[in-house]
Amino acid sequence: MSEADRTTSPVRVGEKRPVTPLVSVLVPVFNEEESIDLFIDATSRVMERAGLPCEFVFVNDGSTDGTLPRLIERSRGDPRVRVVSLSRNFGKEAALTAGLDHARGDVVVPMDVDLQDPPELIPRFLERWREGYDVVYGVRASRASDTPSKRMTAGWFYRLFNRLSQTRIPENAGDFRLIDRRAVDVLRGLPERNRFMKGLFAWVGFRSIGVPYERAPRAAGTTKWNYWRLWNFAIDGLVSFSTVPLRVWTYAGALVALCSFVYALIIVARVFLFGVEVPGYASLMTVVLFIGGVQLLSLGVIGEYLGRLFVEVKGRPVYVVDGVYQSGEILPASERVDRA
Ligand code: UDP
Ligand code: MG
């Protein structure tokens, strides 16, 4: 074994992992009444077959349909089901944060409720975890279930993100992964309000490995993302993990200044050689408008960061819990985890 192999070996000396870890299946749900039963039944089957104890932590992200009553109903007959209900729709990232705060397992597996993340993968994730990996993430072997335009834009995003950010996020990996308790505790300790989970998962580090899988089409219901939401999500991700968009304006400004200087020299030389020339309206307008556009754009970028700074400084909680339910009953407030 070469030296390089030894340092990448996943085994931490002396570490003992539980033989049958408690798996917290963490599921954010937003208007998904059709999918809940399918999801719980399919996942339970897999976990029971593999002999793995699990708990379900559902985070109801302000659903307006029958999702919450359905979840409470399921929790009545199944003590493994816990429901964290948020006071309104806070978005998937906030819902995941709430779920991480309320999960008690030795490992946590965030999953979509629509069965696009196959539960059959959990035992395979655990195999890698037993080998010593702390984060085992699912890699979509093909994105056949996505539209071609979504595939293309997603590809651009990953390339841009990884070029601009020091934190690398693996391409075609979603939130579907297995996270060891140590990493969960680090994630919970991160104070930021702007929670681009894919980035944070990667930022935490530890020994990580990908497991390829085929992403199934949605089992029921419809996607909660439109292009505008995805675009904002992409900007959130980039801006919270890179300051390159801020710095780039220094160079753009320097380049424009240099060009203007050269152009000024040319004009002066022309005056000396050929005398004063009056026409020049078109070139003047072009330059003024161009510089104006560049200035507005760079101001906009500064605004993006300032806006996020504003959100962080206000220090509002990432989510607000309305109630936590187990066995069909609402739990006392002491069972709730609220973020300061
Ligand atoms: N979701 C959520 N809050 C939101 C939007 C989505 O909790 O504001 C949940 C949704 O219920 C689902 C998961 O996030 O369990 C993934 O959403 P979806 O399947 O619509 O995304 P896609 O798979 O199309 O990317
Ligand atoms: Mg989905």
Describe this structure in words.
By secondary structure, the protein is α/β, with parallel strands linked by helices. Helix content is 49%, strand content 16%. The protein has helices at residues 3-8, 36-49, 67-77, 92-102, 121-131, 148-164, 181-189, 197-204, 227-241, 244-274, 281-314; strands at residues 23-29, 54-60, 81-86, 107-110, 135-142, 173-180, 208-214, 321-326, 329-330. The chain has a nine-stranded mixed sheet, sandwiched between helices. It is elongated. The protein binds uridine-5'-diphosphate and magnesium ion.
Jot down its keywords.
340 residues, alpha/beta, nine-stranded mixed sheet, disordered N terminus, binds magnesium ion
Q: In terms of per-residue confidence, which ranges show pLDDT below 50 for 5 or more consecutive residues?
A: 1-9
The ligands bound in this entry are:
uridine-5'-diphosphate, magnesium ion
Series of secondary-structure elements, N-terminal to C-terminal: HEHEHEHEHEHEHHEHHHEE
Number of continuous helical runs:
11
Average pLDDT confidence is 84
Share in helix: 40-55%
Radius of gyration, in angstroms, nearest whole number: 25 Å
Largest β-sheet summary? 9 strands, mixed
Beta content comes to: 15-25%
What is the number of E strands?
9
Q: What general outline do the C-alpha atoms trace?
A: elongated
